[in-house]
Structure formats: structure tokens, C-alpha cells
Structures
1.
Amino acid sequence: MADDNLPTLPALGGRVFDAIVEISDHQVADADGRSVCTVADIQLEGVEFDADVDASAPPPRIVALLDGPVLATRMFGGRPPESRFHRIPWESVTEIGTVIHIDTYGDDMDITWTERWMRDHVIGHIPGGRHDPE
């Protein structure tokens, strides 16, 4: 049963929002508006994994958006190693909405290496694969 007498939160600088609802599983678009990835997780500072949070502690801050191979772990449990995640620094986020916009170009990011590799080594060798259809 929910407690109707919740304490009043102190005034905080910045924007307060529910990261699970407004960030998790959202598409990330680069500076050109092209889809780069989907947010798999977020990296926080100010809170330790699997530890109790002191009520007087300041709220955690988002450090980075994470993308990586999480489909299998969502189906079978567990978590990929930290080294498998690609990080987008929180400072790169310019807008949060249905799509999360960043100020970086996708071609400059390691996240899109598989798409670039497929474009250059597979799709580019298919007749008509190097240009838009007419």
C-alpha cells in the first residue's frame, strides 16, 4: 500500500525525471537526426550497486547512456560485461523526448562500427547498394 505522507523533495538544479520511462529503450539520434542506437541502460554516479541509499544523500546523476548486447541477457538473465557496453557521455545529450538527440555524429562513434562494416563490406557489393533507389 502506498504511503500518502511522502516527504517533500528538496529543490534540485536541473531536470528531475523518471529515467526508466524517459530514457530506457529509447532511440538515440545523432546530430544529423539519424538513428544511432537504443538506450540499453544508464550509468549513474553517486549510488553504489546493490547498496542501500541514505535518505539524506544527494540524488544520483546520469554519467552516460549505455548501449550494448543486452537482448540475450534480457531473455536468459545476467548482464554483459562492462567492457561490452558503448557509452554516450551525458553531456552529449541535447534533447530528451520520444527520441533522445545527441550533438555527436554517428559515423564518429564506435557504436555504429557494425553498420559501417556491413555498409562497406556487404551492402556496398550488392548492385545498387551504394545509392538511393531512383
Note: DSSP finds three helices and seven strands in the chain.
2.
Amino acid sequence: MLQQLHREQREQETRYLGIVTKLDRRTRFEAQTARLATGNYLLPIEASWLTDLRRELLAFPNGRYDDQVDSLVQFLEWSASPRAKCSLDRDPVTGRPIGRLPRRRG
């Protein structure tokens, strides 16, 4: 997916960065359960992917698939980080930033 975003990036002025994880998925998930329990994160009532996400969450960590769980955990980690504080207007359909990201100094 990151490779696809990099290809699309050439046409836009958006930067995408990969995430290097240090812990296994189960440990990272367990570290985010309290954040999920706050109720500050909402899922749509209906979405084509929602059934699969629920299935993965309920089967985790013993399920066959866990990519969506891993993506959710990475989002939760990111949303609590200082990087998330840099807010941009977002496309209501894709959620992608509209406009330019602030340039890094240095």
C-alpha cells in the first residue's frame, strides 16, 4: 500500500511515511485498548469493510487475518503522537489531506 501511495504522491504534494514498529502486533494492540475504550474514536454505522474489521477484531490475535487490526493500532498510536497535532483540511471521502503539508525546518 505504501508503494501505491508513493506512486500517487508524484501527482500530489502529499508525503507518506512508512511506520517501523518495535513491538509485536498483540503487544501493540493491548497497549491501545484503553484508548479504544474512551469512545473518542467512531466507526461508521455502515461501510463495506466494517463486517471484515469486526471479524478481525473479534478473532484477534488467533484469527487468520489481522492487517486491519494492525492498521487500526497504528492509527491509534499515531493519533496520540505529536505528529497528529498538525491538522490539515481533509477530503471527506478519502480522508486524505487537502493542500500542502508544512515544510520541515532544518
Note: Helices lie at 2-9, 25-37, 50-59, 67-79.
